[in-house]
Design a protein that fits this description.
Helix content is 28%, strand content 25%. With 79 residues, it is α+β, with helices and mostly antiparallel strands. The strands form 2 sheets. It has a 3-stranded antiparallel sheet with strand order 3-4-5. It has a two-stranded parallel ribbon with strand order 1-2. The protein is globular and about 30 Å long.
Length: 79
């Protein structure tokens, strides 16, 4: 998972993985090497998190908690 500091969606993705008991590795793009690696994988990347599952880029939508309750949703669209 490619992330960056102060990224609410990155934090939500990490919490979702932890809630599911999934092991994951983060690569913070504040480190130039990580950013360059991400740009090689996704040349037009503009947002994080960027998540790979089993070496496949996964499309992901993560919403913030709603005003009506502290429920967050993560929808994974695996290729």
């Amino acid at each position: 998972m490619y992330t960056q500091d102060l990224c609410g969606y990155c934090l939500l993705a990490s919490k979702e993985f932890e809630a599911r008991g999934w092991t994951y590795i983060t690569h913070n793009i504040k480190h130039e090497e990580n950013l360059n690696n991400l740009k090689e994988l996704v040349p037009n990347v503009r947002t994080v998190p960027q998540i790979w599952i089993d070496d496949e880029l996964s499309l992901i939508h993560i919403s913030e908690p709603t005003r009506l309750g502290m429920i967050s949703y993560a929808v994974f669209c695996l290729k």
